[in-house]
Amino acid sequence: MANWKDPRINYNAEDQVVPEIFNRLGENEKYLQENKITTEQVQDAEINSTQNANRENLEDKESVKGLIGKIRKWLADLKALAFKATIGTSDIDNSAINASKIGTNAIETSKIKDLAVTDAKINSVSASKVTGLHKVATSGSYNDLKDKPEMSGGDNPKVVFEGNANYYTYRFNFDMKGEYRYLVEIGNGYGIGISSKKAPNDHPILNVLIPGYCYGTDRTLSMYIITIIGYDNGPSYEGGGKFYIEGKIDISKGVIDREGYMEIDGQSCPVIKKIVELGKAY
Q1: Rounded to whole angstroms, how far apart are CA atoms 276 and 163?
Q2: Number of separate domains in the chain
Q3: Which end of the chain has fewer beta carbons closer than 10 Å to its terminal beta carbon, N or C?
């Protein structure tokens, strides 16, 4: 048997369904029926838009008005070629590079011949017009090289004096180097010596012995002695001498059995004709 439940009596006025509620629902339904937006109305709806000043990319989310404004700008910037299915020669002739235009504006021999660099023009430039070259460029001489390497062994002899040096005060115009070989030529012979220094800071001294002639059958011998000192302002022919022997000489007693003489003084210096630098000795 079902249990009896007493009806509730604690309802508020606003919780109860009253006739006014049905009136409001009826009025809302009527309003929606009379003012609803149809599909036809959406399709035929018009919107106002303004064309963008610059081309802008479409974003993921756009308002209808903003979207139309962007599209209008893109379409406005398209030119006639954008709507052609095929682009022909006539569409680009005014701007195209073609054979006719190249022929009219081409650089040809006839247009540059007066200014062109030719063999004839190069050959016509004289050496005097070329400036800024070092002396060796035109002389071709090894001696004109700057910082040239020292040559040794006499493969590249260099004449440092040629003339007549006939007394001991003669000053040569060349730099005499230490530990170098020099050939000295006089009127009737040649001799080779090595310049040397007694101490590292001393001037180099060159002593040269030049044999004259020697005949064993008649006991005849002649010899020349030359000394040159390499001062900073040029080597000086300091002295020399000569001796001649015909017969037998006793060195210990300083006598000559037959005839002969020995001279060691400035006036007996032989005349130097040439000095040749042969290179570093070692």
Answers
A1: 12
A2: 2
A3: N
